[in-house]
């Protein structure tokens, strides 16, 4: 226990907290009445709640119990909660969902998204409010179970996956060009075996002229009842984007990298390719997938002005994007704020829209009974710069900062200690300051 106490309070971080920050931390702890205890574990109080599914955008209190949303209303009594966190002036949203990330690392394979090009998710998620990622096809049926054992089962982030139509997944080079390894039957079998974990089929990085990768992915998606996500690879006249989005993809299939400009998303006159509009009418989904080669201001700004907004906002997180034009999920969301999208629309496209796209109805909203993944955001105002994949900058006056992240009802990230007590209020020799009913960081044993 002493070691845990030291870990929590070690370093000089506390000294950097200003009095204003300390007064922000108006956290209260109700004394449980003997035998019964408060009915809620955690109460998030007084924030502006944005919940697209339930069409809520206003100040609400949100109560959590047993890892689920228990009540959302204008006022909930702090006496009913083990822990209350005062969030006036902040936003409360469902936990952010990033449906395009690359997380199958740790295999030791070089130049491979089933290896060194991927990242361990927990270092990139809770600190920016992301509670769920969908890995975008790093593994295929041959290596999905290794991915599951190595990453999915050992991460605190909720990880879902698009299964690559290539049996070997994104091992790079010739693997991803091997038409013979794009087999429908074993992919469907694996998707059925891990139903609920595998949430889609992916095709990506294909350079050849054939439609086979797309056709096999769609066939597998149809048989498994899952959407397909397409990274359309090299731009080939034999398989134009227009045919993909107006004929080959089904309603609900996802075209990612929509602002890359690499495959004719913008026509030569500078307007959105009319085929994308037709695809949208058919129900094809358009996703950002920023990455390190798929987001340009010269494509995105005119498209947004014409009203061609993305259905979902995602990062395409990997080792080459994480420190480049793309920084993290909030940075990609900031870009849409800067292009004039409302904060409610930005949040919808980072929560409920992606949840629906991957058919995860228990995520992405704050209905009573939903999984209690919750993100607390602050809108910071100042002078900021946002860069695209070619390093071109757009100036911005707002950015989102993640103050607090709650996963499955427990605090898993708290930037400024707003859920924590001022150390001067604690007894001498204090131990862990949390409670396992709400604290996922350093809880003390539950005392009832
Ligand atoms: Zn990707």
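Q: What amino acid sequence fits the structure above?
A:
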């Amino acid at each position: 226990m002493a070691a845990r106490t030291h870990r929590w309070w070690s370093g000089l971080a506390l000294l950097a907290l200003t009095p204003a920050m300390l007064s922000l931390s108006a956290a209260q702890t109700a004394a449980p009445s003997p035998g019964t205890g408060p009915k809620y574990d955690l109460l998030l109080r007084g924030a502006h709640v944005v919940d697209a599914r339930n069409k809520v955008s206003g100040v609400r209190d949100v109560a959590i119990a047993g890892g689920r949303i228990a009540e959302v209303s204008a006022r909930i009594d702090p006496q009913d909660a083990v822990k209350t966190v005062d969030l006036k002036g902040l936003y409360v949203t469902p936990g952010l969902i990033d449906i395009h990330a690359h997380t199958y690392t740790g295999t030791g394979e070089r130049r491979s998204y089933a290896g060194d090009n991927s990242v361990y998710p927990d270092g990139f998620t809770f600190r920016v409010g992301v509670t769920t990622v969908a890995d975008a096809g790093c593994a295929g049926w041959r290596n999905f179970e290794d991915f599951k054992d190595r990453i999915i089962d050992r991460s605190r982030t909720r990880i879902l996956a698009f299964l690559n139509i290539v049996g070997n997944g994104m091992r790079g080079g010739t693997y991803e060009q091997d038409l013979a390894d794009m087999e429908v039957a074993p992919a469907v079998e694996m998707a059925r075996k891990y139903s609920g974990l595998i949430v889609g089929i992916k095709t990506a990085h294909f350079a050849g002229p054939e439609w086979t990768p797309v056709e096999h992915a769609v066939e597998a998606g149809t048989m498994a009842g899952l959407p397909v996500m397409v990274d359309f690879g090299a731009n080939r006249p034999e398989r134009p984007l227009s045919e993909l989005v107006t004929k080959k993809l089904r309603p609900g299939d996802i075209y990612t990298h929509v602002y890359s400009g690499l495959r004719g998303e913008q026509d030569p006159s500078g307007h959105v390719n009319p085929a994308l509009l037709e695809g949208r009418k058919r129900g094809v989904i358009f996703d950002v997938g920023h990455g390190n080669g798929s987001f340009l201001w010269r494509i995105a700004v005119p498209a947004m002005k014409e009203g061609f907004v993305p259905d979902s906002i995602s990062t395409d997180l990997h080792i080459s994007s994480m420190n480049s034009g793309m920084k993290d999920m909030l940075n990609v969301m900031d870009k849409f704020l800067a292009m004039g999208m409302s904060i409610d629309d930005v949040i919808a496209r980072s929560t409920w829209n992606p949840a629906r796209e991957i058919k995860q109805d228990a995520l992405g909203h704050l209905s009573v009974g939903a999984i209690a993944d919750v993100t607390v955001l602050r809108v910071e105002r100042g002078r900021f710069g946002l860069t695209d994949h070619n390093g071109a900058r757009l100036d911005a006056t707002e950015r989102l900062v993640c103050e607090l992240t709650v996963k499955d009802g427990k605090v898993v990230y708290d930037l400024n200690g707003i859920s924590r007590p001022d150390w001067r209020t604690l007894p001498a020799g204090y131990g862990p300051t949390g409670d396992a009913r709400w604290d996922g960081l350093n809880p003390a044993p539950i005392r009832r």
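Q: And what stands out in the fold?
A: Residues 100, 102, 136, 231, 289, 291, 316 surround zinc ion (CB under 6 Å).
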